Amino acid sequence: MVVTTSNVIKIPDTNKCAVICGNRGLLVLDRIEIDGKQIEAVEAIRSVRQRLGLDLSSEISDLWLKLESIEDNLLSKLPKNGLT
User: Fold this and answer.
1) What is the pLDDT of residues 30-83, one digit of tens each?
2) Overall number of domains in the chain
3) Residue 34: which H helix or E strand, with range?
4) 66 lies in which domain range?
5) Per the confidence metrics, is the pTM higher than 0.70?
6) Contact 29/42 with Cβ under 8 angstroms?
7) What one-character-per-residue DSSP string does 18-72 give?
């Protein structure tokens, strides 16, 4: 499975989390091991989102690029003399 960024969810009424994967499947995490210590997934997810791929700076940059592309596309479809 390919993990996408920032797609970690807590499963209600459990101590489990799930990572939404690129194939639209879920990788359910119950307990995980960090530095040889086993802990419940919900405890780790609160503090190690960076380790699961969340990179807000890159996400924001990518969104700005997409927005600029959409704007350019829309502007290119306007009549040459402006709005009519």
Assistant:
1) 888 878 888 888 777 765 454 555 566 777 888 999 999 999 999 998 887 765
2) 1
3) strand 31-34
4) 3-76
5) no
6) no
7) EEEETTS-EEEESEEEETTEEEEHHHHHHH-GGGGT--HHHHHHHHHHHHHHHHH
